[in-house]
Design a protein that fits this description.
With about 60 residues, this protein is an alpha+beta fold. It contains three helices and two strands; from the N terminus they run E-E-H-H-H. It has one domain. A two-stranded antiparallel ribbon has the order 1-2.
Length: about 60
């Protein structure tokens, strides 16, 4: 399965640092940014995720 910009992501349940979430319930009427990474982790993925984590306050 592949997703494109503006596609609705499939619903799923996941264990997260915020506890167990149901993705669509967790988003509610808001927005979410999904990241994908290659099978082997690269420094670019780490940098992108770290940068977005640092911007959390701007999204609240």
């Amino acid at each position: 399965m592949s997703l494109r910009i503006n596609d609705t992501a499939p619903d799923f349940t996941a264990e997260t640092t915020q506890g167990t979430i149901n993705f669509h319930d967790w988003i509610g009427d808001g927005w979410a940014v999904l990241f994908s990474h290659p099978k082997n982790f690269t420094p670019v993925c780490t940098t992108e995720l770290g940068t977005m984590a640092g911007l959390e306050g701007e999204f609240k």
